[in-house]
Amino acid sequence: AQIALERDHEAQREIDTRYRLLMDFTNDSIALISVGSGLIVDINQSAALVLGRARSDLLGKSLADFFVGHSRDSLVSALEKPQQAGAPANFEVEVKASQRKLQLAGKMFRASGEQLAIIRLAEPGAGVVADERLS
Amino acid sequence: AQIALERDHEAQREIDTRYRLLMDFTNDSIALISVGSGLIVDINQSAALVLGRARSDLLGKSLADFFVGHSRDSLVSALEKPQQAGAPANFEVEVKASQRKLQLAGKMFRASGEQLAIIRLAEPGAGVVADERLS
After folding, report:
1. Nearest-neighbour CA in chain B from A74: distance (Å)
2. A82 touches chain B (CB under 8 A)
3. pLDDT per residue as tens digits for the range A54-100
């Protein structure tokens, strides 16, 4: 049983490492929020740059607070409206600090009982270009 | 102890879910290979499309076999040459089946004792554009 437990721990650490690496390695700016609270549960370096803050300043903060005219409720309701079934929701926001416009694409999912949303922050129009890049 | 174990399992499933979601959600075409064997341990839908195969046909196959003039050894040695410290290695390959040229960017890492490489497959020049997109 001890050996099985250790194997479980190893497998967990490996997926954890893969997840971390992938967050850093992707060209996308990615944030994960808790849908219930609207708080940022994870965010990569690239997304922190886009918001103009250190990563450590962003964890546990409300993502909506960084955008003009948004609250947790309006952000979640925008995330709940995918344009097609299975496709991510897509909408534009303006960053308070920089007045910069961003295109947000997001998808909700359930992880160990809690609902999370994975959100990509991109230049307006960039998501379309990227999706068509390899087709 | 039972409760702690269950909590561990929940945490593991959550990271697992996040990793899966992120692989699907990213605009990047991503493959993970075992450095020792050169075999594909994971690959996302976007990368499978680029290689022109179903995902299930690619898992456990040698990534180098899909590229003209490459073996496990030449692929790993290309991955071992980052252009700057900390930066991913970058090199071009040609897909056998389609003669399509791809820019590979890759980084080695160690996960539970095994060395893996995370590799991004992009159009030649696309990585540069993507990196500059938000700067």
Report:
1. 22
2. no
3. 999 999 999 999 999 999 999 999 999 876 777 889 999 999 999 99
Domain extent listing, chain A = 28-133
Complex ipTM: 0.85
Q: Are residues B37 and B30 in contact, defined by beta-carbon separation less than 8 angstroms?
A: no
Bigger pLDDT: A28 or A7?
A: A28
B63 DSSP 8-state letter: G
CB contact under 8 A, B12 and A8: yes
pLDDT value, residue A134: 45
Q: Min CA distance, B131 vs chain A (Å)?
A: 6
What averages of pLDDT result for each successive group of 10 residues across chain B (135 residues)?
Answer: 75 88 96 97 97 96 98 95 82 95 94 91 71 45
Question: Rounded mean pLDDT of chain A?
Answer: 89
Alpha-carbon span B60 to A72, nearest angstrom: 43
Q: Do B18 and A111 touch (CB under 8 A)?
A: yes
- Strands, DSSP E only, in chain B? 29-34, 40-43, 89-94, 101-111, 114-122
A to B CB pairs, distance under 8 Å: 123
Q: How far is A95 from chain B (nearest CA, A)?
A: 13
pLDDT at A130: 47
- Spell out the alpha helix ranges (H) of chain A: 2-25, 45-51, 55-58, 72-79, 126-133
Determine the topology of domain B28-133 in CATH: Beta-Lactamase (3.30.450)
State whether residue B14 sits within 8 Å of chain A by CB: yes
Count of all residues that appear for chain A in the document: 135
Q: A54: which residues sit within 8 A by CB, 6+ positions away?
A: A48
